[in-house]
Each structure stands twice: as C-alpha cells, then as structure tokens.
Write a structure and sequence with these properties.
Rossmann fold; 19 helices; alpha/beta; 3 domains; 9-stranded mixed sheet; 22 strands
C-alpha cells in the first residue's frame, strides 16, 4: 500500500491542482461562499476522484490490486470537508458578525408577512436578508401548498389559512404584508386586505413585481412596491391584437393633441411602440410638451418625433404643425378641459376649447387629408348635468354632423381613469400623506374606473375600425363607490379609516352627479367584433336641432353663462343643465 501511495501521490496532486486551476476554485471569496459554490466544488472534486481511479485502474492493468478502492473515496471526503467546511465556517462567522452588528444598529426591524408560493417566498426571504437585513425581517409565510403548512422555511413558520392573516398581523405585530404570485390577482389581494382590515390594525400592503423577477433571482427589494388601488380593480387583462393595431399606425404620420395630458401622453407612449413614421406632439403647455418629448426620446425607438407647441383653437398653429410632414394620416384628439367644478366657473373657455377647438381640429383634419380622426369623449357627455359634460356631448355631435368627406370621424366614450391628473386617486393619496382628512362627496357617489393604459389601448383599437361617424363606448365594468375607494386607499397606506385618517363628506358640487352613465335612454349599443367595445346604434343627431356654431361663438364672446347653459340644454335631450332641474 505504501509503495502504491508513493507511486500515485504525485499524479493525484497534479490532477487536482490542474482541476482547481482550470475551474478557478481559488478565486471565490470565502466570506461569500454560496450553495452554488458548494455544488461546483463538489463536482470538481468528484471529477478529480474519478480521474484518479481511472488512472489507477489503467496503471494496475485493469484492477485495483494492492490499492484499496476506499482510498480515493476517503481522499474525496477529506478534500471536500477541507474545501467546503473551511469556506462554510468563514461564511457562518461573517453571517453571525453581521447579525450582531444589525442587532446593535436597530432596536426593532420591520416585521413582514409573506403571502405566496413557498419557492417564491424562499427567494424573497433571501433577497430581504441580503438587501434589507438591517431594516426588515420575515416573521411568517402564508403558502398555498398544503404539504408545507406547519413546516418552517429559514426558521420561519408556514401557515395556510389566509383568512387568518389579519389575526397573524395582530399576534406577530407585523408592520407589512408582501404579496407574491399567485396571490397578486385583484380578488386575492382584496381578500387579504379585508382579512387585515377586519382586525382594525395598521399594516402596509406591498406586492412583488412579477414571476419573472422571482424566477430569475433578480429580486430587488427596492422594486417591491406598495399595493395601489389599480391592483384591486377586478378586470381581466385586455388581449390586444398588436398586429391589427400596427396595420393602423405603422409607417403612418400620427398627430396627438393634448399630448402632455394623462390620456394624450399614454396615447403617445402606445402609438410610438407601433412604429409610426412620425409622431407629432401637439400641446399648449410648454412644460408638459417638454416632459413627454423627453420621455419618448429616451425610448430610442427611432420614430421621428416632432414637438409642436400650439392651441387647438388656432388654425395657423395647427397648420404649421401639420405642414411639418407630408400628410398627417391619423389624429387622436385628446386636448380638452375636463374638471367639472372648474369648468362650471369658466363656461366660456369650456365651450371654446372643448367644442370650438374640436371643430377647428376636425376642419383642419379634413383640409389636410387626414384618414382617421379619433375624439376622446367622456361618460359625462351622457345626460350631462355639467357644462363640461355638455361640451363633450356637443363635441361628439359636431364631428358626427360634419358633411361627408374622406376623413373618418370617430368618438370614444369612457368613464374615469385611475391616476389621471386632478382625479380622486392622486387627491386621496395627497390627503392621506398629509394625515387627512380625506374629502369624499357623499357615501352614495359612484364612478366607473379603468386604468389609463387599458383605456388608451381600447381607444386605439376602436379608432382603428374602418367606420365613419360612429361613437364607441368602452365597457367600464362595475361602478365603484368613491367612499369605498377612499377607505381602501387609507387601508392600503397602513391606516385605519376614521381612526387614523378622518373622512369628511363635502356634498355634491355644482354640475356633479351621484352616478355616471355611458348611454342615454334613447341610445342603444350593438356589439362589435372587439372585446369590451360597443358602438352606439342610434345616430347621435337624434331629432334635435343642429349646432349653430356662429350663435355659440356669439354667446361665448358675450360671456353669458345663463344663455350658454340654456342653449346647450336645448341641444341635448335629457340634459339637466338648468338650475331648476333636480340632479339624480
């Protein structure tokens, strides 16, 4: 045996030194030794052992005579213990030292409950330990695999009954709940929030970005964001036929009015992805125009961008913008005043911008050979109680009543969008951040909501239809009580409504409704081949008189609010614009 050892020791050392150099095992920092490093080290040592045994087998003429076969295995285990054990001890010492430093640095770390699949929870726990170990720690996991319930992961207990999440928050003193797939669907998030709020405890709700981030191991704690009200809308994602949309936009010259606004800017973002030849940004606000141009340029799409400062009421400014390209082929008209209360106090500019501006854009579109003109309308145009709603309804009628031409005119009518400037969501967010109170019109007020990206997707889809003089209506889902939305936003921020944050009911403002509608009594819709999009069956002209734009301009110039209100009321059947009309 001693002779065999002397004959093979040089070969063994040579083989293992070559493998260590070849696989660069010497480069790993012992303090950061990981399970992957452990597997690689074991694999290299196993390969070396196999090579040694093969060499011995060949040297002994096909046998292991005078050479115990246990020696290579003993050598493998000893070497494995040295390579992995030594590094593991250094790593454990580092972890113990860091834990001690963190314990001295902070008196109490934020306690987190994870709700998600066990495998995904494992990845998140590791990420939190690496990136936020001194500020946050996981105290419980609620998983969906029955076999794992009652077990532990990284020493953290696993529970299963999600209805008990609220009780766990109370018992464990948790500060935050992080929701992982597959529980990121709106219905699941709502159940989790309700479980916690039923306990009347303060707790923050956060959500993990996506399955892809977890699967790839690229979880960045900084990207674990708060649950937003849009996460709770129980609407299935809209499946967009991008090939069809590209055929509508690709290679064309597109102009967007109100390009810096909430809807206009999202139209620009989605249109530029469809690869138009040129995208003209038409916006009256210098700041908003600068912001959207800068954002779109940063995308590096190669699409020709033309930022045009201008007013939709000014023909010369519109002409200068359109003359920047050969022929504008598609116009999305999103420029409009939209705030009900503000427009009640500024009726002249409301009609001047929303009605006359639309007519001016429509005339210039026809004159310049535009193929498709898409007007962004509103549910407030239905049986309007406000001047803003009346102006949008009149804008619809103005483009529908135009003489036949090569330009196809379409209007798309939808309700509120979450997060648009001046809407309830950013207002509530600001009020909650200040500590309240949150102001709600009344407990009974309801509104339709969808996200801005979904609304714009449907607008582009509707606008792509090869029809003329049609009003499209978007399916908005179930109406939402504003009071319930305010309460849920307070809860998502980690507060208890009317305990931590007060709610004040202000009553309906002038022109506001308790509920919104998408159709009038004498309108009907027919289904289209498109999901969530209908077209108004009845001609919007109805039996009412055509709009006299000359007379409307006279009333605007005179600044006669009463006369403007009366004229709009006479043009729109079912409107409730006069002071003596009781609003529902």
């Amino acid at each position: 045996f001693a002779e065999s050892f002397r004959q093979t020791i040089g070969m063994v050392v040579f083989i293992f030194v070559v493998l260590i150099l070849l696989f660069r095992l010497y480069q790993g920092l012992w303090r950061f030794f990981t399970f992957r490093d452990c597997v690689v080290t074991a694999a290299v040592l196993a390969l070396g052992t196999a090579l040694v045994m093969a060499m011995v087998f060949l040297r002994t003429g096909g046998g292991f005579l005078h050479y115990p076969r246990s020696v290579p295995m003993i050598f493998f285990l000893l070497f494995l213990g040295w390579e992995i054990g030594g590094r593991g001890i250094v790593r454990l010492f580092r972890e113990w030292r860091i834990a001690g430093i963190q314990g001295r640095r902070v008196g109490a770390r934020k306690k987190i409950i994870l709700v998600g699949d066990t495998a995904e929870s494992d990845q998140v726990i590791r990420a939190l330990e690496r990136q936020a170990g001194d500020t946050e720690k996981v105290v419980a996991v609620f998983a969906n695999v029955k076999a794992h319930i009652g077990s532990k992961i990284h020493g953290i207990p696993i529970y299963g009954d999600q209805s008990q999440i609220g009780a766990a928050v109370t018992d464990l003193g948790a500060d935050s709940i992080v929701i992982l797939p597959p529980f990121t669907a709106p219905r699941s998030i709502n159940r989790i929030v309700e479980s916690v709020t039923s306990e009347k405890v303060n707790c923050e709700f956060r959500v993990i970005p996506s399955y892809n981030d977890i699967a790839s191991g690229r979880i960045d704690v900084g990207r674990i964001r708060r649950v937003e009200i849009s996460d709770l809308l129980e609407r299935n994602p809209y499946e967009v036929d991008y090939e069809h949309l590209q055929s509508f936009v690709k290679g064309k010259r597109v102009l967007v009015t109100g390009a810096g606004g909430s809807i206009g800017s999202e139209i620009c973002r989605q249109v530029i992805r469809l690869q138009p030849e040129a995208l003209l940004l038409f916006e009256i606000s210098e700041f908003l125009l600068f912001e959207i141009e800068r954002e779109l340029l940063s995308l590096g799409t190669g699409v020709k961008l033309l930022a045009c400062a201008g007013d939709v009421r000014n023909r010369d400014q519109i002409k200068r913008a359109m003359d920047l390209v050969d022929t504008v082929e598609v116009v999305f008209h999103a420029a409009a005043y939209k705030h009900v209360d503000l427009m009640e106090r500024n009726p002249e500019v409301c009609f001047l911008n929303n009605v006359i501006g639309t007519v001016t854009m429509a005339e210039m579109a026809e004159k310049n050979g535009v193929e498709d003109f898409v007007l962004i309308s509103s549910d407030k145009a239905v049986r309007p109680t406000s001047l803003m709603g009346a102006s949008k309804r009149m804008a619809e009628r103005c483009i529908m009543e135009r003489p036949d031409s090569k330009t196809r005119f379409k209007a798309v009518r939808f309700g509120n969008v979450l997060g648009s400037s001046g809407s309830v969501v950013p207002i509530f967010t600001e009020q909650i951040a200040r500590g309240g109170p949150v102001t709600v019109t009344s407990k009974e007020v309801t509104r339709y909501f969808m996200t801005i990206p979904e609304a714009v997707e449907l607008v582009i889809v509707a606008g792509s239809q090869p029809v003329d003089r049609r009003v499209f209506v978007l399916e908005m889902g179930e109406a939402v009580k504003i009071d319930a939305m305010a309460r849920r936003m307070i809860e998502l921020s980690g507060f208890v409504p009317e305990v931590d944050i007060a709610i004040v009911y202000t009553g309906l403002k002038k022109g506001e409704k308790e509920y919104e509608e998408l159709l009038t009594d004498d309108e009907d819709v027919v289904a289209t081949d498109l999901d969530r999009i209908w077209v108004v069956k009845k001609n919007v002209n109805g039996t009412s008189a055509k709009i006299d734009l000359g007379y409307l301009l006279e009333l605007i110039d005179e600044g006669d609010e009463a006369a403007l209100r009366e004229y709009a009321h006479s043009l729109i059947p079912g409107s409730r614009l006069l002071p003596d009309v009781v609003r529902c």
